[in-house]
Amino acid sequence: MILEIFNYSLTAILIGICGAWIFLIKSIIDSFRLTPYLDKFENTTESNPKVSVILPARNEEEFINKCLDSLIDQDYKNYEIIVIDDSSEDDTQKIIFQYAEKHSKVIPVIARPKPVGWMGKNWACMEGYKKATGDLLLFTDADTKHSKNVISLAVGHLVSSNLDALSAIPKMITFDFWTKITLPMISTFLHSRFSALNVNNPAKKTGYFFGSFFIIKNEAYQNVGMHEGVKHEIIEDGALGKKVKDAGHKMKMVRGEHLIDAVWARDRTTLWNALKRLMIPLYLQSGKIAIGIFFAVIFLLFVPFPIFALSASIQSEEMSAKILCISAAITSLLIYTGAIIEAKIGLHLRLIHALFAPLGSLVVVLGFLSGLLQAKRNESVMWRGRTYSMKDHTQNSISI
Fold this sequence. Notes:
Spore Coat Polysaccharide Biosynthesis Protein SpsA, Chain A, 400 residues, alpha/beta
């Protein structure tokens, strides 16, 4: 009797998870189908406003050459590239000055030491902004590669649509096995909150930027307090995007996977830190809600797999056990479906990486758990080679 109650209770939970995944899969498909493209718009402008590309770089000797080459080769004429060395410990600064000597568009900046209470990238962006002379500001990352016409498209799209800010979804470049199997599961999780359809809907409060590519009017940037307004935010691009939306500025998110390549995680260590970085801001706002989200992620992404494996291996004749097994199988199949859609359409990964969904989900869960425990203990967090004290970085701008 007790076992039957337990089985039916788990079945009820799995049915709820099935419903959530049906809704989520529909949202993912709608997002891919309905999100506008960066290069598909009616160009109604002939203006040529000056663009200041602001490119912070810390220990980027492996990637910055390709990034700068792609920016220097743009077909847009009226722009400058402000490259900020953020206390690099490798040859990043040397590379920046080599490019500046050869190309007049490249303006090198050596960021002053980061003040207490600032995240390093946020400080570097502010240091670069002080040198900017453009009407439009294009923020990007040193591990991002751009197509030849991407600035022209971004300016044309922003001005023709009368926008204050525009962010493009890049193609996420992955290198190692663990990132390839984890990223599809992370993407399905993020679709539940930060999809382009939510960002582009004025009735929704969701605002978000991809740090690898967003362009914003100078006056709008100043109006929301610049990067100083999000100086302690761990996820500064999302926080800045929310500020822009909250301030009533007109913003838009578009697809740019065929025009922009960005690195999400470079190895297992950066993957692990990136997963923790997603959960820590939520806990710093509300520990109870963050813990609730963590358990929701466990059940949505992982729990159906071990339930199915266990119930299938026992092969009980009890009806409740059979119903539980079938429910777990259907739920697991839905999770696989979401992972396959993300891997093939959104991330352009091989199908085999989606088939490791249970392992990828487990990595996500463990990474989120590590982030929660770290935030709960009020310990420091590592990011981009720096250690930040949690008490100095209360998060206010990313809404849960």
